[in-house]
Design a protein that fits this description.
Strand content: 15-25%
Number of helices: 20
Largest sheet: 6 strands, mixed
Bound molecules: pyridoxal-5'-phosphate
Structural class: alpha/beta
Helix content: 40-55%
Number of strands: 14
Length: 430
């Protein structure tokens, strides 16, 4: 499979190049040159297939030519070796729980798949591969866990001191080994600026393979398609509407790609918080990015969603065709909070703030469509967000994996928001 740039100035590359470089030189995003169609046999036997077999069959055309089948099978097995249950919340609304992985968030799948692709591609090179990533919470934990103990690769994670939740901080700071966690005295934007500078540092680039692990990398983006197949494997009845809590729009773009490959759905709802660039765009036709606003569902606080362009690309740039399959809504913090409270009171189900945005969006839609049913993606475990305890009291069951982190040693270095300081730490790794 070849990948072209959505800006169309850089030349197309193979999957390997797309993963190793992350982004084309022209600052577009990589996009597959054709969207594979899955066979009707695949869909008729879907409910009997194992998750790793589904992942293998979905991903195979995208990596064809660059990773042999045996290796891809192993990568898929390691990537999806946890549960993706579809849980009824009421008679027409189901939660696809994507939080049963090692860091309790859906980003585990993309991070694990990407780390194993990089391991495959870096074998046989003496130069070290260095992954640098700035995080405001979930990404860093998933990347740390996904790359921990993956041979040949070191990971440097930058997070803003005091600005991630208690559980996120535990997940970021308890790995050690090849995971180097830097607690920056600064904001997330400063962390990101430092990461960007490091990635562009010519001197570092000469000595190592430097790459980011952000969500625009195709090895993080594409495997998210599997969630939608895992959901349909557990579904009976007319195709469901999918409500996807969206920030950078990677997850929902993957779902819409899966639909283009033949998966039957009742359409998609992009469930956004007050960062409403896409809902406004679909309504007015004007795309106007804005600085992000802080909300309860902070992993979706994005003012210029990077992956939206991939949704346009799936429909060859035809906005009206996009609108036939996609609606987008904005849900306020007030509504998010009220939704968490009422769903807990009525159904005993604990929503995290991101899932709550998805639930509220789906519920509004179903109210207007009495014969439809739908699935919202529960993108993270409620225990990851300190606000859940404040809103719902002590009703969150703490998973064992979190309790185990409390007693682990802390591996973390505090540094100022200063590129030279960070650079000298990176330099020592090479
Ligand atoms: C990253 C994240 C999202 C947003 O996903 P996108 O692919 O960026 O749209 C939603 N919920 C949680 C919990 C996340 O960590």
């Amino acid at each position: 499979m070849q990948y072209f740039s959505t800006n169309r100035r850089s030349a197309p590359v193979a999957f390997r190049e797309a993963v190793l470089t992350g982004q084309p030189d022209d600052r577009g995003l990589f996009f597959p040159s054709e969207i594979p169609r899955l066979s009707s046999e695949f869909f008729s036997e879907l409910s009997d297939l194992s998750n790793d077999e589904i992942a293998f069959r979905v991903m195979r055309p995208y990596v064809a030519g660059d990773i042999p089948d045996d290796n891809l099978q192993e990568i898929c097995r390691e990537t999806v070796d946890f549960d993706f249950p579809l849980v009824p919340v009421d008679d027409r609304i189901f939660a696809l729980e994507l939080f049963h992985g090692p860091t309790l968030a859906f980003k585990d799948v993309g991070a694990r798949f990407m780390s194993r692709c990089l391991r495959h591609f870096s074998r046989g090179y003496s130069r070290k591969t260095l992954v640098i990533v700035a995080t405001s919470g979930d990404t860093g934990g998933a990347v740390a866990s996904g790359f921990h103990n993956v041979e040949g690769i070191d990971v440097v994670i930058l997070f803003p001191k005091g600005k991630v939740s208690r559980v996120q901080e535990l997940q970021l700071t308890t790995f050690g080994g090849n995971v180097i966690t830097l607690e920056i005295r600064g904001s997330f934007d400063e962390c990101q600026a430092i990461a960007k500078r490091a990635l562009a540092d010519e001197d570092l680039r000469k000595k190592t393979f430097l790459t980011s692990a952000n969500s625009i990398n195709v090895a993080r983006w594409l495997p998210q398609q599997t969630y939608y197949f895992f959901a349909m494997k557990q579904w009976s009845g007319p195709p469901p509407i999918f409500a996807v809590p969206s920030g950078n729009f990677g997850n929902i773009a993957a779902g819409m790609l899966a639909e283009r490959s033949g998966l039957k759905t009742g359409g998609f709802i992009a469930a956004c918080n007050s960062n409403d660039v896409v809902p406004r765009y679909l309504e007015s036709g004007n795309y106007s990015p804005k600085p992000s606003i802080e909300t309860l569902s902070n992993a979706m606080d994005v003012g210029d969603p990077s992956n939206f362009v991939r949704i346009l690309e799936i429909f060859s740039g035809d906005l009206n065709a996009v609108k036939e399959r996609l609606t987008a809504v904005s849900i306020s913090d007030e509504r998010t909070r009220a939704t968490m409270e009422s769903v807990f009171a009525e159904h005993g189900y604990v929503l995290d703030p991101h899932g709550a945005v998805g639930y509220a969006a789906l519920r509004d839609r179903l109210a207007a469509e009495p014969d439809s049913a739908g699935i919202f993606l529960e993108t993270a475990h409620p225990v990851k967000f300190d606000s859940v305890g404040e809103i719902l009291g002590n009703n969150v069951v703490i998973p064992e994996s979190v309790e185990a982190l409390e007693s682990k040693p802390r591996y973390c270095t505090e540094v100022g928001a200063d590129y030279e300081e960070v650079r000298s730490i990176i330099q020592d790794l090479i």
